[in-house]
Protein backbone atom coordinates (compact mmCIF):
# COMPACT_ATOMS: atom_id res chain seq x y z
CA UNK A 1 0.00 0.00 0.00
CA UNK A 2 0.95 3.63 -0.50
CA UNK A 3 0.56 6.01 2.42
CA UNK A 4 1.13 9.73 2.94
CA UNK A 5 2.45 11.06 6.26
CA UNK A 6 1.84 14.79 6.71
CA UNK A 7 3.61 16.40 9.65
CA UNK A 8 4.90 19.55 11.29
CA UNK A 9 8.08 19.40 13.35
CA UNK A 10 9.49 22.43 15.13
CA UNK A 11 12.75 20.96 16.42
CA UNK A 12 12.82 17.43 15.04
CA UNK A 13 10.85 15.33 17.52
CA UNK A 14 7.80 14.82 15.34
CA UNK A 15 9.92 14.21 12.25
CA UNK A 16 11.92 11.61 14.20
CA UNK A 17 8.69 9.73 14.93
CA UNK A 18 7.57 10.17 11.31
CA UNK A 19 10.81 8.61 10.05
CA UNK A 20 10.39 5.69 12.46
CA UNK A 21 6.82 5.12 11.27
CA UNK A 22 8.01 5.13 7.67
CA UNK A 23 10.64 2.49 8.50
CA UNK A 24 8.12 0.23 10.25
CA UNK A 25 5.75 0.33 7.29
CA UNK A 26 8.67 -0.33 4.94
CA UNK A 27 9.64 -3.43 6.93
CA UNK A 28 6.16 -4.76 6.20
CA UNK A 29 6.29 -3.99 2.48
CA UNK A 30 4.41 -0.68 2.42
CA UNK A 31 5.65 2.72 1.26
CA UNK A 32 5.21 6.00 3.13
CA UNK A 33 5.81 9.43 1.58
CA UNK A 34 6.77 12.08 4.14
CA UNK A 35 5.40 15.59 3.62
CA UNK A 36 6.08 18.61 5.85
CA UNK A 37 3.37 21.27 5.94
CA UNK A 38 6.18 23.77 5.31
CA UNK A 39 6.59 22.32 1.83
CA UNK A 40 5.01 24.13 -1.10
CA UNK A 41 4.98 21.05 -3.32
CA UNK A 42 1.53 19.95 -4.55
CA UNK A 43 0.00 16.72 -3.27
CA UNK A 44 -1.97 14.27 -5.39
CA UNK A 45 -4.15 12.94 -2.60
CA UNK A 46 -5.62 10.23 -4.81
CA UNK A 47 -2.23 8.53 -5.10
CA UNK A 48 -2.50 7.26 -1.52
CA UNK A 49 -4.51 4.53 0.14
CA UNK A 50 -4.14 5.76 3.73
CA UNK A 51 -2.96 8.83 5.58
CA UNK A 52 -1.02 9.73 8.72
CA UNK A 53 -1.03 13.18 10.32
CA UNK A 54 1.42 14.13 13.07
CA UNK A 55 2.61 17.16 15.01
CA UNK A 56 3.73 18.29 18.44
CA UNK A 57 0.93 18.66 20.97
CA UNK A 58 0.14 21.97 22.59
CA UNK A 59 -1.36 21.29 26.02
CA UNK A 60 -2.40 17.75 25.08
CA UNK A 61 -4.18 18.89 21.91
CA UNK A 62 -3.29 19.20 18.24
CA UNK A 63 -2.08 22.78 17.65
CA UNK A 64 -4.47 25.17 15.97
CA UNK A 65 -2.14 25.97 13.04
CA UNK A 66 -1.89 22.25 12.21
CA UNK A 67 -5.65 21.77 12.48
CA UNK A 68 -6.20 24.76 10.19
CA UNK A 69 -3.69 23.44 7.63
CA UNK A 70 -5.57 20.14 7.42
CA UNK A 71 -8.91 21.90 7.22
CA UNK A 72 -7.67 24.06 4.35
CA UNK A 73 -5.50 21.64 2.37
CA UNK A 74 -6.95 18.14 2.69
CA UNK A 75 -9.67 17.66 0.06
CA UNK A 76 -12.85 15.65 0.41
CA UNK A 77 -11.87 12.24 -0.96
CA UNK A 78 -14.66 10.35 -2.67
CA UNK A 79 -12.95 6.99 -2.21
CA UNK A 80 -12.38 7.52 1.54
CA UNK A 81 -9.42 6.18 3.50
CA UNK A 82 -8.25 5.24 6.98
CA UNK A 83 -6.01 7.54 9.03
CA UNK A 84 -3.52 7.52 11.87
CA UNK A 85 -3.15 10.63 14.05
CA UNK A 86 -0.14 11.14 16.31
CA UNK A 87 1.35 13.82 18.52
CA UNK A 88 4.65 14.20 20.31
CA UNK A 89 5.21 15.85 23.67
CA UNK A 90 7.19 15.72 26.88
CA UNK A 91 4.21 14.65 29.02
CA UNK A 92 3.11 11.01 29.03
CA UNK A 93 -0.54 12.01 28.71
CA UNK A 94 -2.94 11.01 25.93
CA UNK A 95 -3.77 13.65 23.32
CA UNK A 96 -7.27 14.76 22.38
CA UNK A 97 -7.78 14.72 18.60
CA UNK A 98 -11.46 15.65 18.67
CA UNK A 99 -11.26 18.59 16.25
CA UNK A 100 -9.10 16.73 13.75
CA UNK A 101 -11.38 13.69 13.82
CA UNK A 102 -14.42 15.84 13.03
CA UNK A 103 -12.67 17.64 10.19
CA UNK A 104 -11.34 14.44 8.63
CA UNK A 105 -14.69 12.68 8.91
CA UNK A 106 -16.25 15.41 6.75
CA UNK A 107 -13.52 14.73 4.20
CA UNK A 108 -14.43 11.01 4.16
CA UNK A 109 -11.34 10.01 6.12
CA UNK A 110 -11.77 7.62 9.05
CA UNK A 111 -9.46 7.95 12.06
CA UNK A 112 -8.80 4.40 13.26
CA UNK A 113 -5.61 4.97 15.26
CA UNK A 114 -4.40 7.76 17.56
CA UNK A 115 -1.12 7.73 19.45
CA UNK A 116 0.90 10.01 21.72
CA UNK A 117 4.68 9.63 21.80
CA UNK A 118 6.64 10.92 24.78
CA UNK A 119 9.73 12.77 23.62
CA UNK A 120 12.46 14.95 25.18
CA UNK A 121 11.28 18.37 26.27
CA UNK A 122 12.05 20.94 23.56
CA UNK A 123 10.07 23.84 25.06
CA UNK A 124 12.53 25.40 27.46
CA UNK A 125 11.37 29.01 27.58
CA UNK A 126 9.20 28.53 30.65
CA UNK A 127 9.73 26.62 33.87
CA UNK A 128 10.62 23.43 32.01
CA UNK A 129 13.93 21.61 32.28
CA UNK A 130 15.89 19.73 29.59
CA UNK A 131 15.50 15.96 29.39
CA UNK A 132 18.58 14.00 30.43
CA UNK A 133 20.21 11.39 28.20
CA UNK A 134 19.04 8.41 30.24
CA UNK A 135 15.41 9.40 29.84
CA UNK A 136 15.93 10.02 26.13
CA UNK A 137 17.19 6.45 25.74
CA UNK A 138 14.14 5.16 27.58
CA UNK A 139 11.76 7.25 25.47
CA UNK A 140 13.41 6.00 22.29
CA UNK A 141 13.03 2.35 23.34
CA UNK A 142 9.39 2.82 24.31
CA UNK A 143 8.58 4.65 21.09
CA UNK A 144 10.21 2.07 18.83
CA UNK A 145 8.06 -0.59 20.50
CA UNK A 146 4.88 1.53 20.37
CA UNK A 147 5.40 2.38 16.71
CA UNK A 148 5.88 -1.26 15.73
CA UNK A 149 2.70 -2.30 17.55
CA UNK A 150 0.76 0.66 16.17
CA UNK A 151 1.72 -0.07 12.57
CA UNK A 152 0.89 -3.76 12.89
CA UNK A 153 -2.49 -3.04 14.48
CA UNK A 154 -3.28 -0.59 11.69
CA UNK A 155 -2.40 -3.14 9.01
CA UNK A 156 -4.47 -5.76 10.83
CA UNK A 157 -7.46 -3.38 10.84
CA UNK A 158 -7.49 -3.16 14.62
CA UNK A 159 -9.25 0.00 15.85
CA UNK A 160 -6.88 1.68 18.33
CA UNK A 161 -7.97 5.05 19.74
CA UNK A 162 -6.33 6.45 22.88
CA UNK A 163 -8.78 7.05 25.70
CA UNK A 164 -9.04 10.48 27.27
CA UNK A 165 -11.58 11.75 29.79
CA UNK A 166 -14.11 13.91 27.86
CA UNK A 167 -13.92 16.71 30.43
CA UNK A 168 -10.11 16.74 30.31
CA UNK A 169 -10.26 16.67 26.52
CA UNK A 170 -12.61 19.67 26.53
CA UNK A 171 -10.33 21.60 28.89
CA UNK A 172 -7.26 20.73 26.79
CA UNK A 173 -9.00 21.99 23.66
CA UNK A 174 -9.79 25.36 25.25
CA UNK A 175 -6.34 25.83 26.81
CA UNK A 176 -4.56 24.80 23.60
CA UNK A 177 -6.76 27.11 21.52
CA UNK A 178 -5.99 30.07 23.80
CA UNK A 179 -2.26 29.25 23.81
CA UNK A 180 -2.12 29.04 20.01
CA UNK A 181 -4.11 32.23 19.51
CA UNK A 182 -1.91 34.15 21.94
CA UNK A 183 1.34 32.66 20.54
CA UNK A 184 1.30 35.10 17.62
CA UNK A 185 1.76 37.99 20.00
CA UNK A 186 4.22 36.32 22.34
CA UNK A 187 6.97 36.89 19.78
CA UNK A 188 7.26 40.36 21.29
CA UNK A 189 9.07 38.57 24.13
CA UNK A 190 11.85 37.42 21.78
CA UNK A 191 14.98 39.47 21.14
CA UNK A 192 18.68 38.95 20.55
CA UNK A 193 21.66 39.75 22.73
CA UNK A 194 25.10 41.02 21.80
CA UNK A 195 26.23 37.53 20.73
CA UNK A 196 24.08 37.77 17.60
CA UNK A 197 26.19 37.88 14.40
CA UNK A 198 23.24 38.52 12.03
CA UNK A 199 23.90 35.17 10.35
CA UNK A 200 20.13 35.11 9.49
CA UNK A 201 19.80 31.40 10.23
CA UNK A 202 16.78 32.14 12.41
CA UNK A 203 15.18 34.04 9.52
CA UNK A 204 15.77 31.27 6.99
CA UNK A 205 14.55 28.51 9.31
CA UNK A 206 11.44 30.12 10.79
CA UNK A 207 8.41 28.07 9.62
CA UNK A 208 6.09 31.10 9.56
CA UNK A 209 8.52 33.74 8.18
CA UNK A 210 8.09 35.60 11.44
CA UNK A 211 11.64 36.99 11.65
CA UNK A 212 13.24 39.71 9.54
CA UNK A 213 16.47 41.67 9.36
CA UNK A 214 15.54 45.36 9.16
CA UNK A 215 18.11 48.14 9.39
CA UNK A 216 20.64 45.59 10.64
CA UNK A 217 18.31 44.53 13.46
CA UNK A 218 16.63 41.16 14.03
CA UNK A 219 12.89 41.83 14.23
CA UNK A 220 10.27 39.37 15.47
CA UNK A 221 6.83 39.96 13.95
CA UNK A 222 3.37 38.74 15.00
CA UNK A 223 3.03 35.35 13.33
CA UNK A 224 4.78 33.08 15.83
CA UNK A 225 3.72 29.52 16.69
CA UNK A 226 6.19 29.21 19.58
CA UNK A 227 7.94 26.22 18.07
CA UNK A 228 11.20 27.72 19.50
CA UNK A 229 13.13 26.58 16.44
CA UNK A 230 14.86 29.96 16.24
CA UNK A 231 16.24 29.63 19.77
CA UNK A 232 17.39 26.07 19.37
CA UNK A 233 19.12 26.50 16.00
CA UNK A 234 20.92 29.74 16.78
CA UNK A 235 24.68 28.94 16.52
CA UNK A 236 25.48 31.56 19.16
CA UNK A 237 22.47 30.91 21.44
CA UNK A 238 21.85 34.63 21.04
CA UNK A 239 18.03 34.60 20.96
CA UNK A 240 16.60 35.40 24.37
CA UNK A 241 13.06 35.27 25.78
CA UNK A 242 11.84 37.94 28.18
CA UNK A 243 15.43 39.19 28.37
CA UNK A 244 16.66 35.82 29.64
CA UNK A 245 18.97 33.34 27.97
CA UNK A 246 17.30 30.00 27.25
CA UNK A 247 18.73 26.47 27.29
CA UNK A 248 18.88 24.98 23.81
CA UNK A 249 17.28 21.67 22.88
CA UNK A 250 19.85 19.30 21.37
CA UNK A 251 18.42 15.85 20.63
CA UNK A 252 16.62 15.65 17.26
CA UNK A 253 17.48 18.94 15.56
CA UNK A 254 19.49 17.24 12.82
CA UNK A 255 16.36 15.38 11.71
CA UNK A 256 15.02 18.56 10.11
CA UNK A 257 17.91 19.09 7.66
CA UNK A 258 17.07 22.76 7.45
CA UNK A 259 18.76 25.12 5.03
Automatic annotation (TrEMBL):
Gene3D superfamilies: 3.30.70.20, 3.40.50.360. It comes from the Bacteria. PROSITE patterns: 4FE4S_FER_1, 4FE4S_FER_2. Keywords: Iron, Iron-sulfur, Metal-binding. InterPro entries: 4Fe4S_Fe-S-bd, 4Fe4S_Fe_S_CS, EFR1-like, Flavodoxin_dom, Flavoprotein-like_sf. Residues 188-216, 218-244 form the 4Fe-4S ferredoxin-type domain. Pfam families: Fer4_9, Flavodoxin_5. NCBIfam families: ferrodoxin_EFR1. This is EFR1 family ferrodoxin. It comes from Clostridium brassicae.
